[in-house]
């Protein structure tokens, strides 16, 4: 439902005030009346309540992952961008200057804070959460594999124990009193690693882990010893040192701690790693994971890569474009940021571009060194993101453009971070334990970015991408050309504007090959298009990919709902052009080559049913061994669950996501801990 923007009327205001929904307008104090008919440019969504506020830090009482904050999308720029423009590309990659290095489908991966692994992945190695498997499999099936890091600030002081009470694999100990971020200290057992291995036995998930770096006189390498042994080929590498450039600020090192001190400590780590005969593989480290307080150049200048190259499987940085830390840690030097002011900064091509260009020296150097270069942890804003930005279609479009820009800039992967229940930016959020009887999981809008990017990259490992800067480089209408096996295969187009009237939908006329390139005309008779859509950039629930949705808040079991719809657009081969419309807002993925079009033929998505496994419909925990024997086919089922997958219309079988009986309190505490861990 579209709401109308009214002048603010004090009496109306008094009527509609409720504690739940906060709407930010661009015109100061604003009243949104969702009961009224849509008109004009207002398009904030407010499904149940309406509300009023003045600009400033938002107030809401529910957990951040479910907040009801809506902001009006920015107005259409004046003058507006042209709505008709052309883009010309060569058929052959060899004629295109500046294409990226070859990229993999798994480019867009995920980063799960270690302390929430038991909230998101599973209760233990024999009880995995089905929505997690289904959601990650959506990416893995499109990308060939899904890359997931389990780590973060909590990895630094984590320690391994033989067992924990009640068969748990993770225990949050006392807080690290020395740490202003109140990071919990985590004890874990190797059942964490078995759990990851068991996930990988069901879906093609590969893992990054982290080696604790808090104590350089006594490196705890158990996670590497057990990780190599248990995960084998499903292990991608070990980050060692998470954001060392913040160690001083977090009082983990003296204030004078600098890149050369870090270089010295890395010598100690690599000596311990080399000497540990229980770690068979010696080249699996990832560093330096600096987060913007030091530039990567400051680390390269120490000779870091040259000195440790034999130990390094990849280089990495971490970065968030902004932070929402003041809400958690009041600090006069970092006053609260107004999400209303921040919003337009996410709805522009410059967002990703400004970030990526800072690392282009490094991605070039990494190519010379022969190392992958990862954005190891990122999202819309640290300390949980911004309500109304991180949890709306704004972040979907931002995430698509940002990830494609990182690929264009020769990063080799980017991992989007998950916190707990009390953050806005999660790709998805497990149901709060106290609500598991009647709710399901919640998908964050950025998860749809990962699906788009997985399909944009494809599975061949040969994908090269280039930013086309169409429409005279207008920042509202970016496009990327995508080559596969040396030939033009796909184009990704984005429209950041919101205009329900349709007046700011744009039409891109795409020319492929032809005489200008000394090539034959390259346009096929028709192209296939998949759209990523929502009614407005402020939308939280109704986001669709090729016509299907995973469901609104509390509705997600990891199975698509609705009918898949892939558009076929006829091209004009005489004029060598295809015209593709991109709604405001929206993103389109256009499949040109035969192979690219075949790749989008609908196939039955493999999903993990739960009803066969338990008598209680509300329980979705799953025993992998039972699953494996009950269904055959590597434990994956092709059964439609109660008609909720493609083409089905029935309401979802309850697949609520957390094992009953876990104390609600522990879930709550997890949420608290998770948000406390991000700090810049
Ligand atoms: C569950 O806990 C959250 C966080 O405290 C709270 O906002 C929510 O209202 C609770 N739900 C129920 C049904 O009690
Ligand atoms: C590092 O972390 C371990 C495990 O939490 C803890 O026992 C140890 O005291 C810490 N060492 C330093 C130097 O902070
Ligand atoms: C995992 O948790 C389930 C449910 O609490 C329990 O039955 C099972 O024994 C646990 N498995 C392990 C390996 O601890
Ligand atoms: C799953 O985890 C259990 C440990 O609880 C282990 O015995 C089993 O081998 C694991 N299965 C796979 C496929 O890794
Ligand atoms: C990249 O390298 C150039 C040339 O060495 C230098 O001028 C520039 O400052 C570097 N960029 C960054 C972001 O450090
Ligand atoms: C990415 O790397 C390729 C190959 O080295 C290079 O041609 C291209 O200019 C790079 N792109 C950017 C944006 O740095
Ligand atoms: C792509 O790379 C991954 C990782 O190296 C590999 O497992 C996969 O088989 C490759 N895919 C193709 C089509 O070569
Ligand atoms: C969801 O959004 C689409 C446009 O993206 C619109 O066509 C559809 O009517 C919306 N559905 C609901 C239930 O609001
Ligand atoms: C969620 O975070 C906010 C601060 O951002 C805090 O005020 C609130 O108490 C937290 N809620 C829970 C249940 O942790």
UniProtKB/TrEMBL annotation:
Keywords: Hydrolase, Membrane, Signal, Transmembrane, Transmembrane helix. The keyword DNA repair does not apply. The chain crosses the membrane at residues 658-677. One of its GO terms (molecular function) is hydrolase activity. Residues 627-637 have a biased composition (Polar residues). This is Glycoside Hydrolase Family 79 protein. PANTHER family: BETA-GLUCURONIDASE (PTHR36183), BETA-GLUCURONIDASE C-TERMINAL DOMAIN-CONTAINING PROTEIN (PTHR36183:SF2). The keyword Lipoprotein does not apply. Pfam families: Glyco_hydro_79C. It comes from Pycnoporus cinnabarinus (Cinnabar-red polypore). It comes from the Eukaryota. Residues 627-651 are annotated as: Disordered. Residues 1-19 form the signal peptide. Residues 479-589 form the Beta-glucuronidase C-terminal domain.
């Amino acid at each position: 439902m579209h709401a109308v923007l009214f002048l603010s009327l004090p009496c109306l205001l008094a009527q509609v005030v409720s504690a739940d929904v906060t709407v930010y307008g661009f015109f100061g104090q604003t009243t949104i009346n969702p009961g009224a008919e849509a008109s004009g440019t207002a398009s904030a969504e407010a499904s149940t309540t309406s509300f009023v506020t003045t600009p400033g830090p938002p107030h809401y009482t529910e957990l951040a992952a479910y907040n009801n904050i809506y902001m009006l999308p920015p107005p259409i720029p004046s003058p507006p961008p042209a709505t008709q423009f052309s883009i010309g590309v060569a058929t052959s990659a060899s004629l295109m200057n500046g294409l990226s290095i070859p990229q993999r489908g798994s480019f867009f991966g995920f980063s799960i804070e270690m302390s929430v692994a038991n909230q998101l992945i599973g209760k233990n190695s024999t009880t995995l959460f089905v929505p997690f498997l289904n959601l990650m499999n959506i990416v893995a099936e499109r990308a060939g594999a899904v890359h997931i890091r389990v780590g973060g600030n909590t990895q630094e002081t984590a320690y391994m124990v033989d067992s924990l009470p009640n068969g748990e694999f993770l225990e949050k100990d006392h807080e690290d009193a020395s740490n202003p971020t109140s990071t919990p200290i985590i004890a874990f057992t190797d059942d964490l690693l078995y759990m990851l291995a068991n996930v990988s036995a069901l879906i093609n998930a590969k893992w990054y882990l982290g080696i604790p770096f808090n104590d350089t006189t006594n490196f705890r390498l158990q996670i590497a010893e057990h990780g190599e042994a248990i995960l084998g080929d499903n292990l991608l590498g070990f980050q060692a040192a998470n954001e060392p450039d913040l160690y001083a600020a977090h009082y983990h090192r003296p204030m004078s701690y600098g890149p050369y001190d870090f270089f010295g400590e890395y010598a100690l780590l690599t000596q311990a790693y080399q000497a540990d005969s229980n770690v068979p593989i010696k080249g699996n480290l990832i560093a330096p994971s600096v987060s913007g307080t030091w530039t990567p150049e400051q680390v390269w200048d120490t000779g870091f890569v040259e000195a440790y190259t034999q130990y390094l499987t990849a280089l990495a940085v971490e970065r968030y474009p902004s932070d929402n830390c003041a809400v958690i840690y009041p600090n006069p030097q970092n006053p609260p940021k107004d999400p209303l002011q921040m919003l337009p900064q996410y709805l522009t091509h410059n967002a990703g571009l400004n970030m990526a260009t800072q690392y282009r020296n490094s991605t070039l150097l990494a190519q010379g060194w022969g190392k992958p270069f990862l954005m190891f942890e990122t999202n819309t804003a640290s300390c949980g993101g911004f309500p109304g930005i991180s949890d709306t279609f704004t972040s979907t479009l931002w995430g698509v453009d940002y990830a494609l820009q990182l690929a264009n800039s020769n990063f080799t992967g980017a991992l989007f971070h998950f916190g707990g229940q009390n953050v806005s930016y999660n790709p998805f959020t497990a149901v709060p334990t106290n609500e598991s009887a009647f709710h399901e999981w919640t998908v964050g809008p950025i998860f749809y970015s990962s699906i788009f990017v997985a399909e944009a990259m494809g599975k061949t490992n040969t994908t090269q991408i280039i930013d086309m800067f169409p429409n005279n480089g207008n920042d509202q209408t970016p496009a990327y050309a995508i080559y596969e096996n040396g030939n033009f295969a796909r184009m990704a187009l984005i429209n950041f504007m919101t205009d329900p009237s349709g007046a700011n939908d744009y039409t891109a006329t795409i020319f492929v090959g032809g005489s200008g390139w000394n090539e034959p005309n390259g346009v096929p008779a028709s192209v296939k298009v998949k759209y990523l859509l929502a009614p407005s950039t402020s939308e939280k629930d109704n986001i669709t990919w090729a016509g299907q949705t995973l469901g609104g808040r509390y509705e997600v079991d990891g199975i698509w709902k609705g009918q898949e719809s892939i558009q076929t657009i006829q091209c004009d081969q005489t004029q060598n052009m295809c015209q593709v419309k991109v709604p405001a807002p929206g993103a389109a993925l256009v499949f040109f080559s035969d192979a690219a079009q075949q790749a989008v033929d609908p196939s039955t998505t493999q999903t993990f049913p739960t009803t066969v496994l338990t008598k209680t419909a509300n329980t979705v925990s799953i025993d992998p061994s039972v699953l494996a024997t009950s269904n055959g086919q590597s434990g994956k089922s092709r059964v439609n669950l109660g008609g909720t997958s493609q083409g089905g219309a029935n309401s979802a079988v309850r697949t609520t996501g957390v094992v009953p009986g876990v104390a609600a309190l522990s879930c709550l505490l997890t949420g608290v801990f998770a948000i406390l861990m991000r700090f810049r």
